[in-house]
Fold this sequence. Notes:
0% strand
Amino acid sequence: MWGLGNVLIAAIPLNGLVIGVYRLGLGTLVYLVVCYVRGIRLTARSFRYGLAGGIAFGLDIATFFLAVRNTSVSIAVTVSALQPVVIAGVAAAAFGERIRPRHVVGTLVAVPAVALVAFAGGDDGARSTFGNLMAVAALFMWAAYFIASKKARETLPTMEYMTVMNMVAFFTVCAIALPAGVLGEGASQMDLATALAIVGVVALPGSGHIFMNWAHGHTTLMLTSLATLTMPVVSTLGAWVFIGQQVTAAQMLGIAVVLVVLAFVVVGDGREVRMRRVKL
């Protein structure tokens, strides 16, 4: 869902900050309605545990949407996919997770393969220094969001956290977009097709966040982080199919390596969990 959502974002003809404001504003309204229907009420406790994740997510949305709009989709998502390198130490120190040899090997093999997906493509003129810098900033905000979400899910149910996180992220992006003076420009460019695309962003990658934040309560931070390496695969293929960005044979090789590595890690983790249950 995140991989295809990145392609959708790249195709929306608006400034990245404007897309972020509309996407988070609409998402907040949707999740508030869901919470109300389900009898969930937000409290000071909700915001105490959800604040850090919301701020990190807002900064990630702002930087990543600017990256996708100012460089190629494959580069933007590939830089963000370096997240396991940033998270590995935190997973062990903050959550007591055991980093297995397969996690280290998987990261060492997959990261160069992911870089191949990004940088072996043809130069279609979509790259820019600003876009690449925003992608690097998004990498660290993305890692901070994952860590904060894992921590929040120890206390908050998924939908309560999703609502607070989106609300805080909305105000965070607004605080950046308003001084930049881009919201008026975005309103003047809005048409039905663009509005429907923003609804699609809430529905597609937004639902991806629901699934991932649910998963944070049931598996390790290292495994969920490694799973995000599939995003460049889906985004690069999606950008090729839907918006005509070039994909080379070298990129296809990198995609295959990433998928094999992820299968190796996920199957290994699953086998370890099953063996632990048998012993218990």
